[in-house]
Specification:
The protein has 224 residues and is mainly beta. The protein has one domain: Porin (Beta Barrel). The chain is 10% helix and 65% strand. The protein is built from 1 helix and 12 strands, in the order H-E-E-E-E-E-E-E-E-E-E-E-E. The strands form 2 sheets. Strands 1-4-5-6-7-10-11-12 form an 8-stranded antiparallel beta barrel. The longest helix has 22 residues. It is globular.
Length: 224
Amino acid sequence: MIRSVLGRLSILAATLALSTMAHAQYANHGSSGQGWEGGFDVVYQNATTLDFDGGSKVNTNTDWGLALTFGYRFSTHLEVLFGLDWADVDYRANFVLQTGGITQATGSYQAFTPRINVQYTLLDRPISPFAMAGIGYTFVDTNVPNGRPSTGCWWDPWYGYVCTTVQSTKTVDGFAYQAGLGVRWDVSDTSSFRLFWERNWADLGHGSPSIDQIRLGYTYRYNY
């Protein structure tokens, strides 16, 4: 359901681009001024194989994610963007045991990454290529159980006596790094679209996997 919604968001973003272009009426490229920005990225994550220490491997599926962005444009060339990335990705894993054998598992992991990027746009034009790089910190819930199930019961004011079984799962976290190339399109004084490729690395303690993403982003600028 969530992935279907994200896919529709990408179509909506493309529709917004055409609509804004049709209605935008400005004689000069007025988006070169300073201003605060807020928006979102629809993220398409490519399938890949992640290698970890000891020979364990995780094969991820292609999947969708979403990022919220907020930042400041210092000029037509330089922007600083803060982002909050979220992804829910299916995977197939081969875990190497201490005995030398291999056990397989399937599931999905959730990743949440706050980050900051510096973006440099080459040309003072409505459509221009750009390069970006940044750093963040990623939190991953692997959904791999690492403890016994436990059941707790309580009196709920609406549902009465309720019992729920929960089980702890393995979580990892570490610094994340990203770099990318793309094209920015200022369709009006206040609205911009970005289409770009980005490579992400994460230092998760027992490996530093890299993941490629394609992002379509929309940004609204104010106080410029």
